Design the sequence.
């Protein structure tokens, strides 16, 4: 580094950017959550799903605990009001 130059600030990672998000508290096992499903009902089309800022990173759910995969599913799945896929 050259003398007198300040180091560049580190860019926030997706996980840091999402660190302030409130995650749900319902255990995954109690709602039969699976991280991947071939069903047409998937987390990315659920009204509860909140995508990560980085599309390839797991999102979260204000109901179910922990990180949530966009191609996952649980028995609380509920369609988006307008049926539009990918609310992230
Ligand atoms: S399907 Fe379940 S885990 Fe996935 S976003 Fe909806 S409520 Fe959350």
Sequence:
């Amino acid at each position: 580094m050259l003398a007198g130059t300040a180091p560049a600030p580190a860019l926030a990672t997706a996980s840091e950017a999402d660190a302030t998000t409130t995650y749900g508290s319902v255990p995954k096992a109690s709602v039969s959550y699976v991280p991947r499903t071939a069903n047409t009902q998937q987390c990315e089309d659920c009204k509860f799903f909140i995508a990560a800022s980085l599309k390839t990173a797991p999102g979260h759910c204000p109901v179910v605990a922990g990180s949530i995969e966009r191609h996952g599913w649980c028995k609380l799945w509920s369609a988006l009001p307008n049926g539009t896929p990918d609310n992230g």
Q: What stands out?
A: The mean pLDDT is 81. The helical segments are 14-17.
